[in-house]
Structure formats: C-alpha cells, structure tokens
Amino acid sequence: MAASVCLIDSQYSDQISTLLKSPSPNQVKEYFQELIAERQCNGLRVNPEGEHGKGVYADFDFKEGDLILKDQMLVGAQHSSNKIDCLVCSFCFQFIGSIELQIGKKLYLHELGISADECGPSDRTECSSGSFSDRSPLLRDTIESLMNDSMQLPFSEKFPLPSVVSCPGGCREAYYCSESCAKADWDSFHSLLCTGKGSKSSNIEALLKFIQHANETNDIFILAAKVISFTILRYRKLKVAQFENPEKQDAINLYTNYGFPMLLEAWKPVSMGYKRRWWDCIALPEDVDSCDEAMFRMQIRDLAFTSLEILKEAMYDKEYEPLFSLEIYGHIIGMFELNNLDLVVASPVEDYFLYIDDLPLSEKKEAEKITKPVLDALGDDYSICCQGTAFFPLQSCMNHSCIPNAKAFKREEDRDGQATIIALKPISKGEEITISYIDEDLPYEERQASLEDYGFRCKCPRCSEEGS
C-alpha cells in the first residue's frame, strides 16, 4: 500500500526542518526564564543541559507536601465524549453553570442519546417532557425543571459555580466561566475553530467535517488543530505589531518567503516541546502483532493525513503553508503523545452528593426526598470528573524517575485545568525535580517496557539496582 503524499512536505522541506529543529540550550534557557518569571513560579529553573537533557531543578528547598508548581497549559482540550457529562469552561476548564444545570444537562443528553457537541446550555429552552418517554413523571418533571433553572436542589447554594458565558462567535460547542476566558480563548485558539456565524474560519462546513472526523477517530486531532490555530493567531499579532511600529518598518522587508522568520517566532512556544512523528512513537496496541507493526503505523499515518486534508479545507492560508505539512502535523500530535498530562478537574456534583450524605440524619432524610431520585437516575455517573489532554510547558520538562520526588496531584482547592505538582519528599536546592511517567509500582521489566513508548530505558537508582 502506497503512503499518502503531502506535497507541502517536499515544497517546504527546509522551512519544516527549521521548525522542527530542537532549540539551542541558550534559547531554551531564555524562554523558560521568561516563562517562569511571567508566571511567578518561584523556586524553579529549567536546565537545558542536565544529566538527562532538559530538566527542572529546585532553586530553594521544598518540604514534603509543598506545592512545587501550578502550570498553565499551552493548549488543552476536554475529551469529546466527556462533554456529555461535564459542562466546563473551554479555556480554564473549571465547572460552570450550577449544580442543577450540570445534573440536568447530563440526564437530558443521556436520555436523548445525543453525542457530544450536539447539545449545550442553550438547549435548555428546547427541553420538553415529550423527550423523556421512558422516565417516570416525577423524574421527567425533575429533569425539565433542572434544565430550565426552575428548581433548586437543597443545599446547592453551598456549591456556587460561575455563570455560563457563550462563545463570542455564536457556536454551541464552547462555553466559558467569564468574559475574560472567552476573550482569551478567542484570541489564542477558538476564533479559527469556531463553527458559529462569527467564526474566522474560511470554511465552516469543512471545519464541522474535521471536528466530526476527530470525534469519530481520535480527538487528539482537535489538539493539533488548536496548536496550528494558536501559531497562526500569534503570527498575525506579530505581523500587526510589526507594521504598527514605525521604528521597525525597515525590518519588515526581512520577512520574505511568506514571513517565515515571523512564523518561526510564532511557533517558538511549541518548539520547546519534545516531538517525534505520531506514527513512529505511538505505542503498538496489544491486539496488533509485531509482524503487522509496519502496516499499523502506515494506517496511523494515513489517518493523520486524512485529518490534515480536512483541516486544510477549513483554515489553509498560503502565508502559513509550512504549518499544513504532514511532517509538522505528525510531530505536533507526537508531542501530545509523548508529553501530555491528563487534564482532570474534580466534579462539584460529586462533592454535592457527598455533602448531602454527610448531613445530620434528620436534614439528610429531608434532603433525600428530593435528591435521591436524582442520584438514582445518575447512577455511578454522578461522580464523573472533567477529563481531557493538555500540554504543560514546565511539566513537560520534568524527567522521569521510578523513585520520583514529586507527582501530579489535585488538591481540594485545585478546581481548574492547571497541572499541580506536589513534593513527595523533601527536595533540596539544586536537586532535580522528577515525576513518574508510568505506574512506578510495576515490576522492573514491566516498567522498562512501558517506558519504551517514551524512547528510553530508565537508569534511575532503583532500576540500576533491580536490573543488575
């Protein structure tokens, strides 16, 4: 079977190689110094030339349990299948609306058998009792009241959530916790990926087709599209700033070849992430025999090619043509495959029902007259958290150890999509901060096999001892 051919790969091979070239140690050091200062991540530094390459080091002592880092994602996305269960801000990923809306929306969509992205808060006005043919009258009325905000559950005021803010472009796929989050997402990602009337996409029909293909195959393509959108929008801002600055007008003449130097600058935050082609680094599924590995990887490449071709219909512009090469697209997806940290935000609905369960007996009995039928309808789904995938620039610099001194851990107060890194043991100034990429409780050989997907064998003190 012949491989799919992307002509942009050959037409812009030099530019693509430059985009994918690893930044120099000085570039890495300078970038992360600025990022750490901007985010006020005190006590950390990134060493681009550590024992295992790039690494994060402590600049002062941390005690066990100390917060080391809250890392804002460069780009992230909620899993499409999770959108039925959790209504969250599309930028910061905290839960929004109300406890009632969270529950009502979930029951409503599950009852209708609607897939993710087909229904949002605006559908509340379309909720009718005829939609719930198999529900008891009580539960049917309860769902309708929850969806229409005409019913308040007992004690739900103790779990307030930000009001729902709609997408500036008018789509029904993105919602926010505030106008500031809506604007930030629009300016950084969403304006080119919005399917509403105000979208900046050149072909909304193709964009809808792209989203459908991603939802049916692998929603990692949504993340890749957000990276391309992010880079294009940064490029446009740089270009506007260049023309608006009279002192730099002469420099504009340097931006030839479709403004490639400016495109390279716009790409810089993405360039800091470790990358390999997706079809080269994706783990071989257990049900694929090793003799079929080459065919499997070819199929993965073709899947990415198909996704890219649809995306090009939606947002292609010759000015940014190198971004639409299969090499770039494959490496972006591979970056998520190798560097991603799960995006997880605990559900306030779970907290709400736990609160009801902990009430004094008399109050609990009274509250459960209303809440028990709702909880029974939700079943085990009541506690589903927001789930997705994200790339965190500082977390991605942390190296692996099977005896890590830190871990990703959400505390009670961590209610958005930022990565939270906590010290597992005392960490001295100058010591490297490590996390585990895998389940460190696995036996030695299983740990090493799991780490093969990341392209290395672990030589931490524990592995050196167990492997000798």
From TrEMBL:
Superkingdom of this protein's organism: Eukaryota
Matches recorded under InterPro entries: ATXR2-like, SET_dom, SET_dom_sf, Znf_MYND
GO molecular function, one term: zinc ion binding
Gene3D superfamilies xref list: 6.10.140.2220, SET domain (2.170.270.10)
Keyword annotations: Metal-binding, Zinc, Zinc-finger
SMART domains: SET
Ranges of residues in domain SET: 42-438
Transcription regulation as UniProt keyword: no
Keyword Protein transport among record annotations: no
UniProt name for this protein: SET domain-containing protein
Species in which this protein is naturally found: Fraxinus pennsylvanica
